[in-house]
């Protein structure tokens, strides 16, 4: 269970392995100068979270998020000194802690690959069952397990198993088949 | 007995003490530096070695203050970037133009109302149109508003205002300092200044690769010497052309801002700016007789009211041009109200030109009031806007 949790974290923090991102890996970042103060970075993540990072000329970093009730206001989350911010960047970037998933994510036996990925909220397959989607016929790959949002494991899910947003799929197949599967689940046909 | 060093130490200690005090009270330090300078001086008591009259050291304190102006403007030039201003967009230019125009007109209005001559009125326009970059930036950081949408607009407008400060100081130095009496004389010196400024910037840009190469030294000691030498040489040389040394400092700052070493120079100069800048405010206070302030209270209060109204109006225009909410527009207006270092520099030009002393007294009171209530208005802008909305609603209901 512990290792699964780590994969989960890894998948959360590595958008490269998330479902739609193999093709379009980009975080939406806007940059603005604040003369006399520093530089402002506005980050919009796929999760819908909106973050503002201010780098002060004196090296301080401030994190803000927008107030959902009042778009004119920003709520301060945290302030870091320069050295703290650098340390933090290392943690977020996965430099100080090597995620376990990195060692195992590519479980490849000849052509067979086992991979993990998380279903995004806007994936087109959400709500349909594996049987409805005819996953194996359409893509050639197989969903061998699903870990749902509550971290409940479902091994070898049947055709009547519904796919829900936020759950992590463990899939097996050839590399090409897995790519097709990801596209299929995200965007339909 | 030579007590020069002790006296200068005493001055710096006084500045430091009021600095700590005002920071504790969460006020801007600038008016407090001026006030403490004003309280001591020739009329102050002396006990043995502690001589608060600063007679022996006044020349040296004055000189350090002069250096303070150079460093303040050098830093302003370093921070300023033409490219950044061009990139900042139409809404900043519109908002900034309104801001400068409205405040300038309120200066003209005040000068006219008080019956001041032209030179005095122009200095007052300068005092009233120069926002304090230092106070505004500090207040926004303290209030944790740096991420707000209107903050970009505010800092952009301040940068636009800095451009006005540069131009206005050149005009003022032609008008007030050159000693020219006729219109043609004033025009001639102002034109000389303008040609010198343009030439300097163009040549500076051309020489950039060479400057970068010369400044490419690892030793921070040599780097410092090179930078300070160029600052002093250019400022001093400007003075010989009847271009104020402050403008020279600004110019070399503007040129070096484009250099690859700009960040290193900024970090290097900052402590000098802080030390000598504080000395400048102190020495400005030293020259003012506190009893003369009474005569300027009326002018200062009218000036403050004009500035607050004018800034609300320009905040409205700037907010409108960039499409932010009415509440953010009020924020913009109130945040820009703070006045500080550059207003005092403008008043200092008036002092050097031997203009009416009431200008200095006005500047002290005006900066004192706005440096204190500016940040308060900024902090409470939400409450004030809420009150305004309540009143507006009531009027609407009654109609």
UniProtKB/TrEMBL annotation, chain B:
It is found in: Membrane. It comes from the Bacteria. InterPro entries: Cation/H_exchanger_TM, Na+/solute_symporter_sf. The chain crosses the membrane at residues 6-23, 30-47, 59-80, 92-115, 121-141, 153-177, 183-203, 215-234, 269-288, 294-318, 355-377. Residues 12-378 form the Cation/H+ exchanger transmembrane domain. It is a multi-pass membrane protein. Pfam families: Na_H_Exchanger. Keywords: Membrane, Transmembrane, Transmembrane helix, Transport. Belongs to the monovalent cation:proton antiporter 2 (CPA2) transporter (TC 2.A.37) family. This is Potassium transporter. It comes from Kroppenstedtia guangzhouensis. The lineage of its organism: Bacteria, Bacillati, Bacillota, Bacilli, Bacillales.
């Amino acid at each position: 269970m512990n290792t699964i949790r780590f994969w989960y974290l890894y998948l959360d923090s590595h958008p490269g392995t998330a479902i739609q991102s193999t093709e379009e890996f980009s975080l939406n970042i806007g940059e603005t100068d604040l003369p006399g103060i520093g530089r402002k970075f506005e980050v919009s993540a796929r999760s819908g979270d909106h973050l503002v990072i201010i780098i002060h000329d004196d090296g301080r970093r401030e994190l803000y998020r927008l107030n959902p009730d009042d778009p004119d206001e920003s709520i301060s989350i945290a302030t870091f000194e320069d050295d703290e911010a650098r340390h933090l960047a290392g943690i977020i970037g996965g430099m100080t802690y090597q995620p376990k998933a990195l060692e195992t994510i590519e479980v490849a036996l000849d052509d067979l690959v086992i991979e993990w990925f998380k279903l995004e909220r806007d994936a087109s397959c959400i709500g349909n069952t594996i049987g409805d989607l005819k996953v194996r016929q359409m893509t050639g790959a197989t969903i061998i397990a699903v870990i749902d949002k509550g971290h409940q494991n479902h091994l070898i899910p049947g055709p009547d198993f519904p796919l829900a947003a936020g759950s992590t799929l463990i899939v097996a197949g050839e590399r090409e088949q897995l790519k097709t599967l990801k596209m299929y689940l995200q965007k339909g046909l | 007995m030579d007590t020069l060093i002790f006296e200068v130490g005493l001055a710096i200690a006084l500045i430091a003490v009021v600095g700590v005090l005002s920071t504790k009270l969460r006020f801007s330090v600038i008016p407090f530096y001026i006030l403490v300078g004003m309280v001591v001086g020739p009329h102050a008591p002396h006990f043995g070695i502690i001589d608060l009259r600063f007679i022996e050291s006044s020349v040296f304190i004055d000189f350090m203050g002069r250096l303070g102006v150079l460093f303040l403007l050098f830093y302003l030039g370093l921070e300023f970037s033409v490219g950044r201003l061009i990139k900042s967009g139409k809404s900043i230019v519109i908002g900034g133009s309104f801001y400068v125009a409205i405040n300038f007109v309120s200066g003209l209005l005040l000068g006219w109302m008080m019956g001041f001559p032209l030179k005095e009125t122009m200095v007052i326009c300068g005092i009233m149109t120069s926002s304090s970059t230092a106070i505004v930036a500090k207040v926004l950081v303290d209030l944790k508003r740096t991420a707000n949408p209107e903050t970009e607009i505010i800092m952009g407008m301040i940068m636009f205002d800095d451009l006005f400060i540069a131009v206005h100081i050149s005009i003022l130095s032609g008008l007030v300092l050159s000693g020219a009496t006729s219109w043609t004389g004033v025009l001639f010196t102002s034109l000389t200044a303008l040609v010198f400024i343009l030439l300097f910037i163009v040549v500076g840009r051309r020489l950039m690769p060479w400057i970068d190469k010369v400044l490419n030294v690892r030793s921070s000691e040599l780097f410092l010497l090179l930078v300070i030498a160029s600052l002093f040489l250019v400022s001093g040389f400007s003075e010989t052309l009847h271009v104020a040394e402050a403008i020279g400092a600004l110019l070399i700052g503007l040129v070096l801002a484009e250099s690859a070493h700009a960040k290193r120079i900024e970090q290097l100069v900052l402590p000098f700016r802080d030390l000598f800048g504080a000395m400048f405010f102190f020495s400005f206070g030293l020259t003012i007789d506190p009893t003369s302030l009474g005569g300027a209270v009326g002018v200062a209060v009218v000036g403050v009211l004009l500035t607050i109204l004018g800034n609300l109006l320009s905040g409205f225009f700037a907010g409108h041009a960039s499409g932010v909410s009415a509440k953010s527009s009020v924020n913009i207006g109130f945040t820009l109200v703070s006045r500080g270092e550059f207003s005092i520099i403008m008043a200092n030009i008036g002092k050097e030109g031997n203009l009416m002393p009431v200008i200095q007294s006005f500047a002290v009171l005006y900066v004192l009031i706005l440096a204190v209530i500016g940040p308060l208005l900024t902090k409470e802008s939400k409450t004030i806007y809420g009150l305004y909305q309540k009143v507006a609603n009531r009027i609407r209901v009654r109609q």
